[in-house]
Each structure stands twice: as structure tokens, then as C-alpha cells.
Amino acid sequence: MTISASYAIIDGMIDFNIPPYVGTEEKYIQEAIQKRKLCGDGMFTKRCSRWMEENLSVRHALLTTSCTHALEMAAVLSGVGAADEVIMPSYTFVSTANAFVQRGARIVFTDIRPDTMNLDERLLEDAITPRTRAVVLVHYAGVACDMDPVLELARRHGLLVVEDAAQGLSARYKGKPLGTIGDYGCLSFHETKNLTMGEGGALLFQADEALERAEIIREKGTNRSKFFRGQVDKYSWMDYGSSYLPSELNAAYLWGQFMECEKIQRDRMETWNFYHQAFEELEQAGYVSRPVIPPYAEHNAHMYYLKLADLATRTRFISYLKEQGVMAVFHYVPLHNSVAGKKFGRFFGEDKYTTKESERLARLPLYYGIGQENREKVVEAVKSFFRKN
Asked: Do β-strands 304-307 and 361-364 pair in parallel, antiparallel, or remain unpaired?
């Protein structure tokens, strides 16, 4: 029995999320302690970076303290400044916008596609102005945005493309790993993600010319990385930077997860497929909408959601499931409706789907080790809601 399964039984409630645990993490953490190297860029940090570079076919992968910090690094490397605009979906986490707001940029929010909840690439060109510097894509639920038209548009207009692939590890677009297709990609290893180090992330990029500055930004603005490699005899302050290096203890935990990545993914996919098949009849009856996976996308079972008729139905649905011992949650409140969203950005065009679709969406429990018994309990709770309503 996994730790995840035992937690669910002890709590008496099927939790929405339990961080994955494979059983080898303590061994690697103990190894890190024995090496007497607990700060960043030790053996396990380097192992994790190499694993990502090899398994994601990306030239450079820098482990960071969070996806938020990876996004901040991407914003700096993109050269975004006070006179610039950055286009992104409103349906995303605050970190996506904050990274560019910190550089002084103005955020231009665009509407989403109702099928994938991703930015609608057909709206991009009209949202571009002479001040537009970058487009930030969010691969919601580990389902890829349609990258080709975005990349073509970016080339024509001289724009940078940043992928917020916080939910995208092990997912692909036409065979290419998410986070490796644009100019910069950002991953998350938060405890809610498929693989975790508690808090953590990674910055991915292909351009060799970006590496030196990325290392400087990550090392508090110093060329300390070159010093440790023996390339300079002392290090000094070179540029803007911050402390973006994770602890070796966190990296050691993540290394254990990387070693069992395929096992974790298989388990999550089993849950996703079980839900998807079980709820087909509800969709055919018009009660719910299930997730849509476009033909260009290979998803990673990051989450399973259902869309209800409206906000009132979703509220009753989440409350009912909780009474049945199943913890379901809603997700993002669109940024353009927030206080900060109105202060730092504007919504381009019509909010046709962003608010409406976000108010319908409810996420179901999905985590490594949930087990068949709990999967069936979730399905029965969902179906019983519609039988009674």
C-alpha cells in the first residue's frame, strides 16, 4: 500500500491531492546529508538537470525554487520592460502575470478556447500592438496549446514565446515535450504536480547564448557558477539576479520521483482513463462536459475536470461531493477580474468564454496511489449527484 492510499483511508475523505511518494526519497535525502552539501547546485541538482535535458530533449534545464521563479527568470531573459506589453490568457495562476508585471510590463489578457481552456490562438494577431514583446502560453491541465500558429505569428512579428508548462511535464505537442518549444519554458514541481520536490520548478531553453546570463540571474546576479567550474578565479556581481537555487534536500526528493516517473505516470493515466470512460454517459445525457484532448496533444493526466451547467450547479456539486467524502475543487478565478488584473492589465476583445467556462469547471481527486476503490467511490459520488438532481 502506498502512503497516498493510507492517508486517504485514515482521513476518511478522498483528498483532492496527495503529493506523490515512491519510497526511495528518504534514501536520496540521506545521501545528500552525508555529502555535507545542502545548498543549491550540488550532486542531486545536477542529476535532476541532466535528467530533464536528456528526457525532454532540451539543451539547458536549470532547476529553480519554484515555477514562479522560473517564470521570473524567463521574464528577465526576455528583456521585457516598462514600455512593453505581454499577451497571455486570463485563465491562469497569478505567477504567470506577476513575473512580467515585476519587469514593468502591461498585461494583455485574451480569451480562451472552451475546448482546452487554453489561449485562443486565433485571437492573437489582433491583440498585437507595436508594444507587444512576448506571448505567454499556458498549457492547461497538461494539454498543449496549438503551438504552430503561435510560433509562426511570433516569427512574423518578432515576438518571444514563453511556455508556462507548470502542469506540462511528460506532456507533448506533436511529439515535442511541453516547455521545450518556445524561447523559454517553465515547469513546476509543487506538491500538486505529477512529480514534486515540495516547492520547485525548472527553466528550460534551447539557446546556448542564453545560458551564461541565466546562470548569473539564478545565482543572485553573480558569475558564481563559472567560479565553481574553475572558469574564473573569483566571482563578482555581474547583473540583476536573485536566489533561485533549490536546496539539495528538495532536489534529492525530486530525484527519487524522476527515477519512477513512468510508474507515476501510468498510475495517473489509469485514473484519468477510468474517470473519462465512466463519465461518458453523463456527457451524452448533457449533464457535463468532459476534457477535450486535441489530436496534436499528448496529455499527462495532470488533472481530471468536469464542466457543469453553471456556477450554481458547480457549487452544489462540490458541496455534495464533500458530503459524500470526496474533495473536489474549482480552479482559477480569471485574472482580468481581479484588483491587480485591472491595475496591471487589460482584457482584449470579448470575454466570451474565460469567465463562463471557469465558473463551470470542477476538478476531481487525481493523485498517484489513489487506488481503484477510491476511483470507484469518486465516480459513484458524481453519478449519485445527477441521480438526485
From this structure: antiparallel
Bin 384: left if φ > 0, else alpha if -120 < ψ < 50, else beta.
alpha
The residue among 93, 98, 92 whose CA lies nearest residue 110 is 92
248-259 per-position pLDDT tens digit: 999 999 999 999
pLDDT, residue 226, reads 85
Residue 6 has pLDDT above 70, yes or no: no
Domain 25-259 has CATH 3.90.1150.10: no
Q: Report d(CA 370, CA 216) in Å as an integer.
A: 41
Encoded amino acid at 258, one letter: F
Q: Tell me the domain boundaries of the chain.
A: 3-17+261-388, 25-259
pTM (2 d.p.):
0.94
Dihedral sign for Cα 341, 302, 120, 78, please: positive
CATH class of 3-17+261-388: alpha beta
How many whole angstroms separate alpha carbon 5 and alpha carbon 112? 36
Check residue 231 and give its pLDDT: 87
Query: Do 199 and 192 contact (CB within 8 A), yes or no?
Result: no
CB 292 within 8 A of CB 115: yes
Largest CA distance in the chain: 73
Residue 2's pLDDT is what?
35
| Whether 142 contacts 176, CB under 8 Å | no
Residue type, 224: R
Q: Mind listing the pLDDT tens digit for each residue in 206-236?
A: 999 999 999 999 999 999 888 777 888 788 9
Under 8 Å between Cβ of 308 and 360: yes
pLDDT (average), residues 174-184: 98
